Amino acid sequence: MKKLIVLGVALLVGLCFSGLAQAETANDTVGVLITVNPSFTFAIGESVVDMGTVAEGSGGSGSVTMYCGTNHNLPWTVQVKSGTIASGANLIPLSNFKFYTFVIAGEGAGTCVGTATALTLIDQLAYTAALSEYSDTDVRVNMGFVLDVPWSTPSGTYAATVTATMVE
Fold first, then answer.
1. SS3 7
2. Sheet-wide strand order for 97-102
3. What are phi and psi of 139, to 5 degrees?
4. What DSSP character marks residue 52?
5. How many contiguous H segments (helices) and E segments (strands) does the chain have?
6. Residue 129 contacts by C-beta under 8 Å, 6 or more apart in sequence?
7. CA distance 65 to 86
8. Quick check: 162 and 124 in contact, CB under 8 A?
9. Which of 62, 63, 69, 90 could form a disulfide with 144 if both were Cys (CB 3.0 to 4.6 A apart)?
């Protein structure tokens, strides 16, 4: 009788565990997509560079910060040109209006125009991005300006429009 009870209990336990041993699984997959929006931004931080009041035969200077950004992973440059420097009909030669570019450590790694270069009416290279900046949305490039006012320049408030362009 004891053998019969032990056999019955063993059979019952075996049946219970046999259901666990036959557990089934199923799986499937799902693709995940995400689109990263393209970004290409360029802005000059200041709207006016005021070089102050100067005497003829002297000069003025000033600077701006340009904010460049892209995630296109492509080479890019900044180009610059200037309109005429005029006060009414009076002009200061563009050869007297110079620019240079520079970066502060950690804000840009590309190639700057470190020597004051005369502005012209056509675009000229001001900055070339480094490879590490081809997909960097926060590059800061500074542009300085120097204006030498020739002797015999008539008095007046002279103005020019400088255009900087980021190009990929």
1. helix
2. 40-44, 59-70, 139-148, 97-102, 117-118
3. -110, 130
4. -
5. 1, 11
6. 68, 75, 76, 77, 110, 136, 139
7. 24
8. no
9. 63
* Per-residue model confidence (pLDDT) at position 1: 54
Distance CA 101, CA 70 (A): 19
Kindly report, residue by residue over 126-143, the tens digit of the pLDDT.
999 999 999 999 999 999
The tokens describing 68, both together, are: 């460049």
Which amino acid, 11? L
Residue with tokens 């799902």: 30
For 40-167, CATH gives 2.60.40
- Is the Cβ–Cβ distance between 40 and 168 less than 8 Å? yes
What is the chain's Cα-based Rg? Answer: 35
Q: Residues 47, 64: contact at Cβ < 8 Å? A: no
Evaluate whether 118 touches 59 at the Cβ level (below 8 Å).
no
How many angstroms separate the first and last alpha carbons of the chain? 93
For 83-92, write each residue's pLDDT tens digit.
Answer: 999 999 999 9
The DSSP bridge partners found for residue 167 are 77
DSSP class of residue 159 equals B
